[in-house]
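User: Here's a chain of 205 residues. Predict its fold as tokens.
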Amino acid sequence: NIMAGLRAGFTGRCLLNGRDIDQWPRKAFAREVALVPQSLKLDFPFTAEQVVLLGRTPYAGGLFESPEDWAAVARAMELTDTLEFRARDFRALSGGERQRVVLASALAQEPRALLLDEPTTFLDLQHQLTIYELLRRLSREGLLVIAVTHDLNLAAAYSDRIVALKKGRIAADAAPCDALTPHKIQEVFGVEAEWLTRPNGKAWI
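Assistant: Prediction complete.
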């Protein structure tokens, strides 16, 4: 919420491109940063496509959507595998389907930084992996991706950098293999853990 400019009254500083986030014009900031919340409640009868179209609000310049807006919406829905229910009422979608639509809306903003709060909470296993593969690919293409998650194995498998928090303070800030050592997991979460190696050579906690 702080990084998204939604919470004031914090200590320290939060900057985007060297500029305090509260000094950014809101429309300009929304073109730079998109947020995917853990859940979204919507009481209006919007279709999935209309929800994704809301992501184009920072670019609105008239009464009607531009061809660029519709192209961005189509790309975002294709990336998130949501085109098949574009005409369905958002409220009638499953939790996982809604989450993917909200992610599509954020991607339709075409931001330079994407913030996600537990992005795979409502997703089945296949879509959990699909979403994290997509996030990693977007990161490799230059998008800054910051996700909050309690799933240590997904974090370890897909992150370049992990910041582990304990009671609001940084307990580790390093590559996954260094941030999620058994000692550090014991310190932060109070549980015993160990790294195991699968036959394909990949490790898991």
